[in-house]
Amino acid sequence: MEEKVLQIIKETFELATVDKTCSQKTCEAWDSMGQLNLVAELEDAFEISLEPEEIGQMTSYDDVIRILKEKM
Amino acid sequence: MSKFVFRNNTVERFFGKEYSFSGYDDISLIPQDADIYVWWYQVPIKYDQQVLADEIGDYAQKLNFVLSQIEPTKSFIALTMDILYFVPFTDDDSRLQQSVANYNNALYNAEASYNNVKVIDITEFTRNYTAADLFDWKFYFVSQMGMNPKLNKEFKVWWERKLSSIALKRKKCLVLDLDNTLWGGILGEDGIEGIKIGGDYPGKAFLYWQKALLGLSRSGVILTICSKNNEHDVLEAWENNPFMVLRQEHFAAYRINWTDKATNIKALADELNLGLDSFVFVDDNPTERELVKQMLPMVSVPDFPKQPYELPVFFKSLVEQYFKVYSITDEDKKKTEQYKANAARAKAAASFTDFASFLESLHIQIGVEAANEFNIQRIAQMTQKTNQFNLTTHRYTDADVRRFLDERWKIWCISVADKFGDNGITGTIIVKPLDSERCEIDTFLLSCRILGKGIEIAFIKRILSLLESSGFKTITANFIPTAKNTQVRGFWDKVGFKCISETEDGSRNYELSLTDTDLSIENYYHITIK
Question: The complex's ipTM?
Answer without folding.
Answer: 0.79
